[in-house]
Amino acid sequence: MRISVIGCGYLGAVHAAAMAELGHEVVGVDVDRAKVEALSQGIAPFYEPGLPQLLERNVAAGRLRFTTHYEEIRGCSVHFIGVGTPQMSQSGAADLRFVDAAVEAMIPHLGFSESGIEVIAGKSTVPVGTAQSIAQRVASTGAFVVWNPEFLREGFAVKDTLEPDRMVYGLPEDPEIAIRAQRLLDEVYEPIIDAGTPRLVMDYATAELVKISANAFLATKISFINAMAQICDAAGADVTALAGAIGLDERIGRRFLRAGIGFGGGCLPKDIRAFQVRAQELGVGDSLAFLREVDRVNDTVRLGVIHTVRELLGADYSSARIAVLGAAFKPDSDDMRNSPSLDLARHFAQEVASVIVMDPEAGPVLRAQGELPFEVAQTIDEALTGADLVLLGTEWAVFRQIDPTHAAALVKRKIIVDGRNALRATSWKAAGWTYRGIGRR
Ligand code: UGA
All domains of the chain, ordered by start, with CATH? Predict the structure, then answer.
């Protein structure tokens, strides 16, 4: 099938490559010329495991190409929208300008599909009501809208796209059009559906809400365990043992109960804010008042770490050198949007003598940015050398594997704050380190 994917960022680039991998003829469209040039050569513009191979293979096979020209979407049967919906700085609402611009730019090129039906499938995370308004805007072109939210996680994006937990189709109201649109998407996703992936069919509003409520739930789960970490700290208990025990209850589940310096990234923080704004617009703002607390807890965990670092360094705080391990918002990604680790590095850089940051993938991105308030190390050893305190902010495997005895020989003072509860406390203590986790005795 001929498919277009509008927006080639973390979502769209992976989706375009994955659709080509399924055998479709795909054109990815983005307004960013540099990104399109890189992708056209089969080069991933960001770090995502598995994506370079997928791009290379499908670009070479001629099934996948990228362009800045919207007219190249003409004749495609399905157009996926995967542009960003960032947060508006003042209100916290979702900024729909990229979605709006994409729809406007697509309109003159719709209505040329030879397959008899043309579908716009929205994947971006949008406020409930957006699909309906897009459907009205494109009605005169004959194209139909389906809302088909994406649940991929960065770091696992390729796997999550090709082997998702579930597929959600928000379909138009007219039953006849709905069934035709559904069949078309089923054809696009045939191998995934044949593999037994649950495919859930619903209306636009529910599909839009499935996406944002899933992210709100995940954020709530993280803030819940971080609140428990604060209680554990005060009571002398251990949050990792607590999470392990409550997580064995199937109704609760162990995943997403890792206490630490909080959630970041391009999705959870902005989504919980946009969701609150939309609920207020709908006159049910009180229903989501708890998300304000979820956001607040997420901020306070970072304040807790600042307090711990001050306490551990005592009078030496302002003259200290702090090594921050990790700058990305999570491992296996170079994405630093709303990164708790980077936020802490910036904070400490204002208050202590020097900060050095090391991140295997985000490090080179940082270095390219220049003008930083801290140093960026090439290696872990370079970061550790001469440090008064080490803060683990992103739980990359290479950091989890650091030998505490080797590290002890490099630092000035053996103090480690494990901001992700990812290290073996006993090994670090045995090597003579003062170890502090989050909510861990
Ligand atoms: C999130 C959702 O998990 C995806 O399902 C969704 O599709 C995506 O947003 C999106 O809307 O596009 P992602 O932003 O890639 O995915 O990251 P997560 O794996 O959810 O992690 C978010 C943050 O929570 C990270 O900073 C991570 O370190 C933190 N986290 C996660 C914790 O602090 N504790 C945990 O137990 C889990």
Answer: 2-197 (3.40.50.720), 212-294 (1.10.1040.10), 304-436 (3.40.50.720)
